[in-house]
Amino acid sequence: MTTEARKQEEAAILDVVKGVYQAWNNADPDAFVAEYVEDASATLPGSYLKSRQEIRDAMAFSFNGPLKGTRSSDNVLDVRFLNDEAAVVISRTGILIPGETEAPPERTAYATWVLAKKDGTWQLAAYSNSPSVGPGGR
């Protein structure tokens, strides 16, 4: 892959990630999963979701419950191509309650996004996150 092609592919991948966070900020569960493959998975502390529909339903519940009114922050730390049709993105993400500009450590996590290129379009195949603060506040 040429340097220019790689930049274009990376930009397309980052657009997918940005779209997920824009959907969160709009509390839109359908847009949230629009770029997920049908059999996508999400592993979060305390849960494992194994389809786009399960992820969508969990986000719909959360947007109307524990995450109501929240926004997300995201800082991409790394984009790594595994081959021309698979990539991994590592980011630090946070949940912002109204009025906050930065999430406290207890509401931040490191996230791993696995994307696959299908029919010329990057889609999310798997997502996982881990709290940025470990047991004992580390």
List keywords for this structure.
alpha+beta; 6-stranded mixed beta sheet; 3 helices; 138 residues; single chain
Any overview of this molecule?
The chain is of the alpha+beta class. The chain has three helices and six strands; from the N terminus they run H-H-E-E-H-E-E-E-E. The protein has a six-stranded mixed sheet, with helices on one face. The N and C termini lie far apart (40 Å).
How would you sum up this structure in a few lines?
The protein is an alpha+beta fold and 138 residues long. It is built from three helices and six strands, in the order H-H-E-E-H-E-E-E-E.
DSSP summary: helix tally:
3
Low-confidence stretches: none
**Number of beta-strand segments:** 6
- N-to-C span: 40 Å
Q: Give, in spatial order, the strands making up the sheet with the most strands.
A: 2-1-6-5-4-3
Mean pLDDT value: 94
- Biggest sheet details: 6 strands, mixed
> Nearest-angstrom radius of gyration?
15 Å
Task: Please bin the fraction of helical residues.
Answer: 25-40%
Broad structural category? alpha+beta
Dominant shape: globular
Q: What order do the SSEs take from the amino end to the carboxyl end, as H and E?
A: HHEEHEEEE
**Strand portion, in percent?**
35-45%
